[in-house]
Amino acid sequence: MATTSASEIRTGPAEILLGGVSVGHTEGDVIFHLGIQTRERKTAKQGENIVDLIHTGCQPRITFRCAQWVLANIQSLLPGASVSGNAVRFGRAPGARLGDSAVALTIRPLKANPSTSEDILIHRAVVREWAEVTFNSEEDRVLEVTLIALVDESKPDGQQLGTINVPSGA
Question: Please, what are the domains in the chain?
Answer without folding.
Answer: 11-164 (2.30.110)
